[in-house]
Design brief:
Strands 2-1-3-6-4-5 form a six-stranded mixed beta sheet. It is built from seven helices and six strands; from the N terminus they run E-E-H-H-H-E-H-E-H-E-H-E-H. It has two domains: about 1-40 and about 100-205, Ribosomal Protein L4, Chain: A (3-Layer(aba) Sandwich); about 50-90, no CATH class. Helix 2 (about 30-45) crosses helix 3 and helix 4 crosses helix 5 (about 160-165). The two termini are about 15 Å apart. By secondary structure, the protein is an alpha/beta fold. It has helices at about 20-25, 30-45, 100-120, 135-145, 160-165, 180-185, 195-205, and strands spanning about 1-5, 10-15, 120-125, 150-155, 170-175, 190-195.
Length: about 210
């Protein structure tokens, strides 16, 4: 399918042919959901922890004899039953990451790109570059285009001036094509690809 290409000055710069295998797939919310959960699980620190019986401070002495008291049998005051004791089955330091097949991840990214195009929220520009790394200049460009929460995906190399100008803008993210991921594509309002990004994404996903 054909898509119009514009510049950052909102001028026409021709058209580009988008591959149906990458940008024309039907929606698959289940695949996208699985991939987003996989991405966010890898980001979790997994550092929360509670103390086990061996880590709680206190004596290990048996508080009273096992039999003959008429009361329940207990060992130490550090047991989970007592106030100030350990926590039963509490969280431990661990990794929350889990596996996901490469085919599923690739399909999810293609589905997310297709959904953005179907919604009319995917734009293709000639190049994402600035002469000077001025945040004010880029902010004015985005205001003129009507883009607020926007994700820019460029080729293998991101223009340094453009990346620096976008660094201080809330809701604006700039990534190279190898950093394109489902979570960032889904949560942005407008997805902007450069010509180079389209070429490399199609080569990577087909």
């Amino acid at each position: 399918m054909k898509c119009d290409v514009t510049t950052l000055e909102n001028k026409k710069a021709g058209t580009i042919e988008l591959a149906d295998e990458v940008f024309g797939l039907p929606p698959r919310s289940d695949i996208v959901h699985r991939t987003v959960v996989w991405q966010l699980a890898k980001r979790r620190a997994g550092t929360r922890k509670t103390k086990t019986v061996s880590e709680v401070s206190g004596s290990t002495r048996k508080i009273y004899r096992q039999k003959g008291t008429g009361r329940a049998r207990h060992s130490t005051r550090r047991a989970p039953l007592f106030r100030g004791g350990a926590v039963t089955f509490g969280p431990v330091v661990r990794s929350h990451a889990h596996g996901l097949p490469k085919k599923v991840r690739k399909l999810a990214l293609k589905t997310a790109l297709s959904a953005k195009l179907a919604e009319g929220r995917l734009k293709v520009i000639d190049a994402a570059s600035l002469k000077t790394p001025k945040t004010k200049a880029l902010s004015q460009v985005l205001e003129n285009l009507g883009w607020s929460r926007v994700l820019f995906i460029d080729g293998p190399e991101v223009d340094a001036n453009f990346a620096r100008a976008a660094a201080n803008l809330v809701g604006v993210l700039v990534l190279p094509q190898q950093g394109a991921n489902v979570y960032d594509v889904v949560r942005c309002e407008t997805l902007v690809l450069t010509r180079a990004a389209v070429e490399h994404l199609e080569a990577r996903l087909t």
